[in-house]
Each structure stands twice: as C-alpha cells, then as structure tokens.
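User: Batch of two.

Assistant: Item 1 of 2:
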Amino acid sequence: MLYIHIPFCAHKCGYCNFYSVVNMNSPDLYKKYLDTLIKELEIRINDFNENIETIYIGGGTPSIIGANMLEYFFEKLFEIIKCKDKIKEITIEFNINDINIDSLKVISEIKNIRLSVGIQTFNENSLKIISRQTSKEDIINALKLINKSNIENVSVDFICGLPLNDKEQSKKDIIFSFDLLPKIKHISLYYLELNNFLKNKWKDFLPSEEDSVNYYNIAAQTIENFGLKRYEISNYAIEGYESIHNSAYWNLKDYLGIGAGAFGCYKNRRYENTKNIKDYFEFVSKNKAPAKNIEFLDEEKRKKEFIFLSLRTAKGINFSFYKKLFKEDFIDKHSKIINKHIEYFIISKEYLSIKKIYFDYADEIILLLL
C-alpha cells in the first residue's frame, strides 16, 4: 500500500480538517514537489519490503496540478514501482473545479484507476456557508464529463447535516447524482464534524444532532436503494467495488506514506512527515526521510486499533484473523463484556459485528471493548 499526499488547494473549505496549503498556484513549485515525492519514495521503498498493491493519492487537492503534471507524475511513479501490473487499485481524488477533458483522459489511461470526487451537496446556499468554491452548475458539468469518459470506477462523497440542509437534502443530492452519473460504484456518506468555533459560527444554520442522524439514515437508505451495500460505517459500494486500499487499512496492513504531512506505518512504527513544505524539501534533498514524529505500536495498541477499525465495518471482527495476528481467542478474552451488552452485537461462527440499527452509536459501543 502506498499513500501519496499532495497538499495544495486553491482555497480551504470551512469544514476541512486535512492538512493543506492554499494560494500556491505555481507550476514550478508543483514540479519540484512531485520530484521530491519521487525521491522520498526512492528513499523509503527499499526499507518497506512489501509489494505495493494499492495506491491512494489524496490531499489537499491532487487534481490541482493539472493534466500535464499528472501525466509526468504517473510516468515517474511507475519507473519506481516496477511491478505496476500487480497494482489492483489506484485512487486519485479530484476537485470538481479541476475536472476537464484533458485530466480525465490522462487518468483514464491508467490501469485500475479509481476516481474519487467530493460533491458534498448541490445546495448552493450550503456550499457558500462552508466556503466551498463550487456552484451547482459546476458539479453538474463535472459529473456529465465523467459520465462521458471511459472511467468506470467512480466514488463520490456527500456530507449529511450541512448548514441549511433539511430532511430531504442528502436524499435529493444522491438521486440527482445518479441521474447525472449512473455509473457511480461507491459512495462515502459522512456526518459533518465541526470544532467548537464552527459549531458556534454556524449554529443558526445547523440541524440538531437528532435531525442529522435522521437525515443520515434517510440518505443511507437512498444509497442502498440504488444497489450499493454498506460495508463500513461511512462507505457504500456496488459488490466488487469496495475500496481495496481503505479495506487494507482496516486490516492493519503496512503502508508507505509519502509527501508533506503524510502518515505511514510499517514494522510496527507509525510516522508522520513534516508538514512544512520547505523542511520537507530540505530533508529529502539530503536523502533523509522527512519524518517528524515516529510512534512505536506495541501489541496492545495494535489490538485496540484492530478492534476499533474492524467493528466499524459491516462484517466486524474476524475471529481467525484476530487469532492469527495476536495469538489469542477474541471471544474468550471479551466474553464478559459482549454478554453484558449482547443487544448491540451479532455473533456468528466467524465474526462479531455491530447490529446495523446501532451503527450511529458504533464509536461508543466499540469503547466498551477497548
């Protein structure tokens, strides 16, 4: 697994918690950054000792670099990753405003490409409040272009409970998206998560927490009516189109992370690269890995992460895989807590999962086992 972080954005959306830098519209800077990414990969890859089967290019806004830079970057990337035919999935995030014929043509020629697009909502008043610089017309035109392309593996994101959203908003957004882009294979449906400052700033426009849960469940049912199945708390897919990359995270598979602010985890160590672009360039220019923080993951931490991530999936905890990883029986260790709160769980011969009706409270239920 390989995660590549491209932190540049044209602007910062009001709700975004991901690391990004804005107002850096410079082709020279983008090229220098891409060359540095390749060099960091060269530094790290020999120590990784794992086949790279999935790549996820996130941000920031990877698509901001444009068609020519995307073509250049993939060419350089595949010079380092020799066995590119073994890559099962390459996901790249695109901003609505960057979707054009040239960029779509570049990525459509890449084997096993998966396009991820953030729609969030078609409600223009909501988009203005959250400082998202796209209009309803922009989204419509972008989805029509994708529909005309030969890219088949498309994932879209929506956010429930945005300012000025009502009971039917996300439902209408989802239906309208399928009208424009019927080949959608995957949907990520998120609750709006805000810090206290934004909660206070937008308090007059936000639905209540109870209403947000209700809106989410209506949207979830709408997605499932289109034939997508919920395979993780926030993720839905046509069978066979579940995210291979994200599913590997949930199974604690080792992964490389490259780029400013990227995380990676292998050999029981999780690292975070420096977020400072200047420092990032300097580290890599000296053939040094640009990690700012390194955390050792002992067995107890890994167990907790596995339990937390597995129980957010529809399948839940695989008993045999847990035993293979940690050399102990999950049910034997946790039977007292499970039996005490059995109403929340489904137990089969192979799995422990949270009942679908309790998914809205999954994080609280998972804490019982940590």
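Item 2 of 2:
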Amino acid sequence: MQHSNQSVFDGIWRIFCSVVDNFGDIGICWRISRQLVAEHGLTVQLWVDDLTSFQRICPEINPERISQSVLGVEVCYWPAAQESTVNWQQLPAAAVVIEALACTIPRAYKQQMANQQPAPLWINLEYLSAEPWVEGCHGLSSPQAELAVNKYFFFPGFTQLTGGLLYEQDLAQHLASFIDSKQAQKAFWQKIAIKPADYQLTVSMFAYSHAHITELFQQWQQHPAKVLCVIPHGDLANALAAQYPEFPGLLTGDMLQLENLHIKVIPFLAQPDYDLLLAACDVNFVRGEDSIIRAHWAGKPFVWQIYRQQENAHLLKLQAFLDRYCRQMPANLASSVQQWFLAWNTDRHLTGNWQEFYSHLPEIAEYNQQWRQQLLANGDLASNLVHFAKKKFIITPNFSQQ
C-alpha cells in the first residue's frame, strides 16, 4: 500500500453543517472548528446554511457576508436551497471533509471530491448516542457506490470505543477558576442583570416547549425559599409570554415574579457565556446535543430534554444514556434520576418526580464529579478526530495540492 508524503495538517479541513433545530448542530460544529484551529493549528472552513441562527451563539458572525474569518475559522455561507450558485468545482482541494450531523454534502462537491487525486478523507460525524451498537460502528468505512471515495463513520460517545465528547484543553481549569471566584461569578450575573444573592435555588432552563412546565413552575412558586429560573429568548420564552399576558415585560428583560418563583428571560448567550451560566446555576435543564455535553463539564445536576423523533425513537436513545449515566449510582438515586428524566421527556405529570429529584441534588452533584472524570478519560472529540485522520493518512494518501 502506498504511503503519503502529505500530512493531515497540510490541507484544508472542510466542515459542512446544516442547521436543523437552530442551535445544536451549529453549536457542535462551531466548537469543533474553533478547537481544530486553536489547539491543532489546522486550516478550517465551516460551511453553514443558516448564518442568522449562527449569529445567536456567535455575535461576531455577519449574516450578510458570504465568506468571513471569525476566530481563525473561515466561515462560508452554504445556500442549501440554491447550491447551484456555488461553483464547487473551483474550491481548493481539502485534506479532510466532515459531513456533520446528518447533513448531506452537495452532489456537485461529492463529484469534486471523487475527482481529486488522491481523494480527501471523508468523515461522517454522527449525532451523540450512548446506544451499545455505536461502539461497533465507530470508525467503520462506507464505500460509496457512485463515487470512488469511502466515507468513515465517527461517533461521539461516552466510552473509549467512541470518539468521546467535545471539550477544550483549558475548559476544566477555566470552569474551576470561575466556580472558585465569587468576584467572577458576581461579574457574570451582573452582565445579565441578575443579583443571584437574592435566591436560594438558581435554575437555567434551555428547553423545548413542554406541556406540563406550568406544573413545575407551580411547585417552584411554593418552594420554601426563592427560586430563580433563567430562560434564554426562544420558543419556550415566547410560549410563556403568551401564557402570562399580565406580565408584558417578560420578553424585554423584566423579572416575572410568581410568589417564590422569579423568572428572567435573557438574551441568547454566546457559547463561552453559556458555559459560565451552567457552572453558576444549581440545576441545569438542557436540550438537544451541544448543551447536554456542556452540562456534563459544569458538573451540576442536570436534566436532558432529548430531541424528539418519530415513533418515540428518541426514548430508546434516552434510556441508553440513562443506563450508562446511572450505572454506578446507588439504586435509589438511579431510580430518582431516571424517573425525572423520563417524566420530563414524556409530558408526564411532574409533581412527585421533581420533588424526589430535588431531594437528591447534593448526591447528584457529587456523583457528577466522578462521572465527569470518567468522560475526560476518553479524550476529547476534536483531538480524537485529528488522531483518526492522522492514522488514515499514514495508511493511504488522502490529499494532494492543486
């Protein structure tokens, strides 16, 4: 077998991202892109079909620009509905092409990849899953019937037999320093116009709409101490504003007070600030994929609202995660956590399940520190991607200069 004189670091890494649920897909792709540039010195192009949503998590993005450089990443607009407007054949050769999170690379660009000699390394970056079959499929190749190039499956995951999870080299120290500094936390809360000292339970609520969320709010209204619930602008905040028309300032930064519950809708945070919000709160409600990963690194009790799929396929994925996450918990703690996660994801009535979950918050926080260490031992996703690519480049040439 022929070996290549080229390195995985010699060419462009081209990442394609189609924004599906506004933030999860682009959130993952943006973190990977930044990390590949900052920590591995790679040249990265990120092709995105929705720059407006992208701007919500990265204020430096200009939605009107077709191409722009942000934090060392070349961001390119990919007009998915009008792909013919891009001359894909004129793009410089890529060393690695990442088809991220179930998006589909343009047909014309696939042909360009096949014509490139040797072909680039084509990676299908899959969605996060804890299902056991993922370990057997991670890293497998998939020959393409119509193209002379293979595609490799790369699965993020929770074990050493997967690609691991996204985290930056300095993240743990950064969050630890933030948690240890009352001054840093005070400055953060001031930045979003909140006085946290006024509350005994702080909750971040990043969630899809929920049929029984008012039931949870009613419990928090009767909480023996003050509860702060921070909600970013979005569908959930809009639904609450419609539900509480007597509080017209809810979407403009006013505090909504319902007995001992205080609700604050804040502007959507850039990713670094969202990471700090998770570290600053006592409990984090997260949704989709990017925020659940960041909740792990914050180390606080969390509940995951998984992205819904047809025929309740998402519940199988949720149960697979719970089986792995709760595996080393004491039986009563595992039962409480699983019942609360399932209640939150199935629109069950929440009353008893929340009270049980709440009573275990100190134990969950302690357990999450151990769980986080287990995950860190698997290596980070970006570095694992680079190691995978380097291995493939040693085996066979995948890049040529044009």
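The two ends are 23 Å apart (CA to CA).
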